[in-house]
From TrEMBL:
A single GO BP: fatty acid beta-oxidation
This protein's name: Enoyl-CoA hydratase-related protein
Annotated GO MF terms: hydro-lyase activity
Similarity comment: Belongs to the enoyl-CoA hydratase/isomerase family.
InterPro entries cross-referenced by the UniProt entry: ClpP/crotonase-like_dom_sf, Enoyl-CoA_hyd/isom_CS, Enoyl-CoA_hydra/iso, Enoyl-CoA_hydra_C
A UniProt-annotated Pfam family: ECH_1
Keywords per UniProt: Lyase
Gene source species: Halorussus limi
Highest taxon, organism lineage: Archaea
Amino acid sequence: MSDWETIRLDYEDDVATLTVDRPDRLNALNVDTLEAIEEALDEAESEEVGALVLTGAGDDAFVAGADISYMQDLSVPEAQAYAELGHRVADRIERFPAPVVAAINGYAFGGGCELALACDLRVASEDAVVGQTEIDLGIIPGWGGTQRLPRLVGDEMARRLIFFGERIDAQDAREHGLVGEIVAGDELDDHVHELAADLAAKPTYALAAAKEALNQSHETGQEAGLRYERRLWSGLFGTHDQREGMEAFLEDRAPDFE
Ligand code: COA
């Protein structure tokens, strides 16, 4: 197991939990932290976990954004490299072969909100506050927010959130579709772990194929997307889980997936 200073990676019940661990900076993401997240994603993937949880250390923040003290004096080429790193990490989360669930335990601003947007599912504690707040720093979302936010909340609401840099509470985020579910703060970890463990118990290849096909709907037109879906769908026939799932249904028993 690797040893990082700014993140933790824990395993339990086929579920990995990646915790951004810079509570004195409200888990803001500097270059070291982003690189550590990349390494941790590689490690969790090679461990073949069934689901991954992404969260922040402490009671206050999921991730309060990109590190503003680092960004302050960046040149254009340096900013470009930082955006590329942020994009790489968000893409890596989006393409992680197993489902990734964001447990939003507090502030999720700017780059923190964008990491959550790259996850498959978002569960917020009732006192979480989220937003694409970059406008008030004189910049715009640079780690995927302009592309991923409108898909969840719609174009008008994305424009409102990004133009005004509004910080919205968990209830509003739920109402707008930015998070899927809200739970009490002291239940968040257990609830998300249970959700992730339930996902990890599902047929692995089918879940990975479902994720890939859904992701593809953002990349191509419908015709190409349907071709993609057909290929992934038919590729599942003959797998243990397909045979077992269908046999179990026909024999009226619970399936025993690989
Ligand atoms: N980058 C770097 N440092 C950050 C940070 C960020 N995104 N967010 C918070 N911090 C640091 C603060 O500078 C402070 O450091 P200090 O103790 O050396 O003064 C420490 O974390 C605690 O933050 P503080 O602002 O004192 O806490 P708070 O409870 O009063 O406010 C927030 C919390 C999240 C409302 C506030 O920190 C904030 O607005 N942060 C910036 C959010 C943002 O715009 N993010 C988008 C960046 S792309």
